[in-house]
Amino acid sequence: MDTSSGVGVIDKAAMVLDSLEAGPTTLAQLVAATGLSRPTVHRLAQALVHHRLVGKDMHGRFVLGSRLVELASAAGEDRMIAAAGPLLLQLRDATGESSQVFRRQGDFRVCVASAERPVGLRDTIPVGTQLSMKAGSAAQVLLAWEDHERLLEGLGNARFTPTILAGVRRRGWAQSLGEREPGVASVSAPVRGPSGRVIAAVSISGPIERLTRQPGRVHSEVVCRTAAALTEALKKGGD
Q: Which CATH architecture group holds 8-73?
């Protein structure tokens, strides 16, 4: 399929933005992903930074910019968040635990939707909460399917290992026990965009006493089913 609009500079800028969907990207990675010359990519990226369509993280890598979030909000809809609401309520009711959707933003993962357990001991993660990409089952899911270079980078100082991430890819879900916070367990599964790329993680979290020391054995099936339903909703929305 020809993706050219006939306006070269717009097409090239779109290629740069598309390449940033997977997460923080160096200039060299952008050049490789777009097939454009280094001076062209540098010039386009800096122009996009000027307009806040692209930003930079603490390591100087390029990331999708804050203006895109503002524009998405202004459009009045975010299909994933809208679709996630009722699915997270069903997941919470099925498991009895708080449920969330996380997206990666730079060096953090951000809770973009949640359904809290109404009573009793619970793991409260309000929408907008930034958590580390170095611990927790959602972080494992958001990292497990990255390319080799980003995978190695993400494993630096992480609480999980390459072997754990290999298991996540094999099973299709992740679990954690006290990784992010002592006494808290979680189970997560990947949400994929229309292109097939992992763009978010569906999670449940709560005290180890309730989720047990093998929370994936108890809850992975329903968490994976919810993530698959959200993936399917995004496919339909993209038709």
A: Orthogonal Bundle (1.10)
The pLDDT value recorded for residue 79 is 79
Q: How confident is the model at residue 77, as a pLDDT?
A: 45
Helix (H) or strand (E) segment spanning residue 167: helix 162-171
Could you say which residues of the chain have pLDDT below 70? 1-3, 72-77, 237-239
Residue 112 backbone phi and psi in degrees, to 5: -105, -10
Which DSSP string do the residues of 4-57 spell out, in sequence order? --S-HHHHHHHHHHHHGGGS-B-HHHHHHHH---HHHHHHHHHHHHHTTSEEE-
Cα–Cα distance between 189 and 168 in angstroms, integer? Answer: 9
What are φ and ψ of residue 91, in 5° steps?
-65, -45
CATH architecture for the domain at 79-237: 2-Layer Sandwich (3.30)
